[in-house]
Specification:
Radius of gyration: 24 Å
Shape: globular
Strand content: 15-25%
Number of strands: 24
Distance between the termini: 38 Å
Length: 579
């Protein structure tokens, strides 16, 4: 868990800028005002059940609460330490790690239609039940089906329910999850199939938000759900104009003394969509905007602001990474990519240093050699395919290709997401791979097709529509999130996964990963995840490229800007305004 600290050391210039603004934290907090948050896209989900972009984490931070969450902090260790939220403390598991008992905070309320109402244990169970609804299930449900006693059975029964609000409400209200017990209104007990030291982290996910009974009257995230939004966080929805703006205002049912993580200084938060990055930066610098939503600070802007000594820049390592996926299931080139020597050649060939520079330099990225990036338990400094200064080793790559039986190289198709840095990244990869003997056909693909229709459709891998694809991944929670990387991407149980693009599976890695989850000693868990990384990379299904670092920026009127790792941004609920 200390790798975030090392990442910050590599970004010392920006960190010093943050330190110079420490005096702002000593100022007396001010309440009131409207925080203006600028984005290119709107908040894409109000309901925590359907899949949503990572940026939506900031919205959920303001309007929802979970049993466990994270503090907003400039301390890299505190950022990823689970904290009690709706729970009154972080429990120590009993029954050899199989049982977790939570007591709920009193005064934590729903903004219910008939007035404030205490959140109770039944609401927690109901929130989990909604995850496996047949109308729009949550991808994260797989974490809990595998883990909580009886949850898979409950979800299996739900699959046969008609996807209407009435039928789903009836199933939930009549149902029960054996491993989620509610012996009293203020007590929730989870019983697990096996010991899992990341269960506490899983409970920080927005999908675990409790659900009031009223939401069962509406389909998940439907217009009716949005019109009748019920918050349990410090803010609730005042107004919503699709594709334009969502306005949050104080939740009258929220009690500050019941919430140790959110101060809710500002009166309102306006999340404004349709703002282009350059315009957003101009508005932050002029004082017309305060924070960014889904906009990355352009590298050239970071370099300029750093040279100017701007103290409103900070950094956050969230465990995000980029890699190249290798198609090991198609018959292209007579199945050449099934040969581990060819996959090792690809790992030697790529110039990772060039990708770092293309992304803006070391402030934004660090070369990565394994499946676990900086900021994730399991990341360690190893290089199974070392190259000078991470610039690639053409000679070694060609040698392995020849040994595999391809002295004249291979022709490979590489679709790429034709948005943002996608085209530039693809060209950098193409250049280094072709130097090593691979002929790369680039296939520009619209963002709306790249993941939903092309890459996550297993038939396209099987039919050889692609050979290589540059891809990215962000873990579902910070810190102890090795499972969030390994399980969805690098395991296969017979059912085609959404993000395991070529059904990779390694039983030896699975066995060690299970041990890593079961131990209560995090140092031992880290060593075991290191071993998982080394097993996978010995027979590589991917070419790890870089760990990504997020550069954060805010307007001059924003005080107490604290990074919230689970949202990938500053915490809306803890800033105040000086204007």
């Amino acid at each position: 868990m200390t790798h975030r600290t090392s990442a910050r050391m590599a970004l010392a210039g920006l960190t010093l800028a943050l330190m110079s603004s420490a005096g702002a934290f000593a100022q007396e907090a001010q309440t009131g005002g409207t925080l203006r948050v600028l984005g290119t896209a709107e908040v894409d989900r109000f309901d925590t059940v359907p899949p949503a972009t990572a940026d939506t984490g900031s919205f959920f931070r303001a309007t929802t609460r979970q049993l466990i969450n994270f503090a907003a902090s400039t301390d890299t260790d505190e950022q990823i330490a689970p904290q009690a939220d709706l729970a009154d403390s972080v429990p120590v598991p009993t029954d050899e790690g199989l049982t977790y008992t939570f007591k709920l905070r009193q005064g934590a309320n729903w903004d219910a239609p008939d007035g404030p109402r205490q959140i109770v244990a039944g609401d927690v169970e109901r929130g989990f039940m909604r995850l496996c609804n047949p109308f729009i299930p949550a991808p994260a449900v797989s974490y809990f089906e595998d883990l909580i006693v009886g949850f898979a059975d409950f979800c299996a029964g739900f699959a046969g329910v008609e996807p209407t609000a009435e039928a789903m409400k009836a199933y939930i209200e009549a149902g029960d999850v054996a491993g989620i017990e509610t012996p009293s209104d203020d007590t929730v007990v989870f019983r697990l199939k096996y010991a899992a030291n990341d269960f506490i982290y899983l409970l920080t996910l927005p999908v675990t938000t409790p659900a009031p009974v009223e939401v069962l009257d509406y389909l998940p995230d439907s217009p009716e759900y949005r019109e009748n939004y019920i918050s349990n966080g410090p803010y609730t929805i005042e107004a919503y104009v699709p594709d334009t703006q969502v306005t949050l205002t104080r939740n009258p049912a929220w009690q500050a003394e019941s919430d140790p993580l959110r101060k809710a200084y500002v009166d309102k938060i306006e999340v404004i969509a349709g703002v282009q990055p350059d315009a957003a930066m101009q508005q932050l610098q002029s004082g017309d905007g305060d924070m960014l939503y889904d906009i990355n600070v352009p590298p050239v802007t970071v370099q300029m602001l750093t040279m100017q000594g701007d103290d409103k820049i900070s950094t956050l390592a969230e465990g995000a990474s980029r890699m190249i996926w290798i198609n090991t299931v198609s018959e292209n080139n007579d199945g050449a990519l099934r040969n581990p020597l060819v996959r090792q050649a690809l790992n030697y060939a790529v110039n990772k240093a060039a990708i770092v520079q293309q992304l803006g330099g070391p402030e934004f990225a660090t070369p990565l050699n394994g499946i676990f990036p900086l900021g994730i338990l399991g990341h360690h400094d190893f290089a199974p395919y070392p190259t000078p200064d991470s610039q690639g080793d053409v000679a070694k790559a060609r040698e392995l290709l020849a040994e595999a039986g391809y002295p004249d190289g291979l022709s490979l198709k590489m679709p790429f997401r034709n948005a943002g840095n996608g085209a530039a990244e693809a060209q950098v990869l193409q250049a280094s791979l072709e130097e090593a003997g691979f002929k790369i056909e680039l296939v520009p693909t619209p963002p709306s097709d790249f993941y939903p229709r092309l890459i996550t459709n297993f038939d396209n891998a099987l039919n050889g529509v692609w050979d290589l694809v540059p891809s990215g991944w962000s873990p579902d929670w910070p810190g102890g999130a090795a499972r969030s990387i390994f399980q969805p991407q690098y395991t296969y149980d017979g059912t085609h996964g959404t993000f395991n693009f070529s059904d990779y599976n390694n039983e030896a890695a699975n066995e060690v990963g299970a041990k890593a989850l079961a131990t209560s000693d995090l140092a031992e868990a880290a060593k075991l995840w290191n071993e998982v990384d080394e097993i996978v990379m010995a027979d590589p299904p991917t070419v790890p490229l870089i760990s990504q670092t997020t550069v954060l920026y805010h307007g001059a009127g924003v005080q107490n800007f604290l990074p919230y790792a689970a949202g990938g941004n500053g915490d809306w609920t803890n800033v105040w305004l000086s204007r």
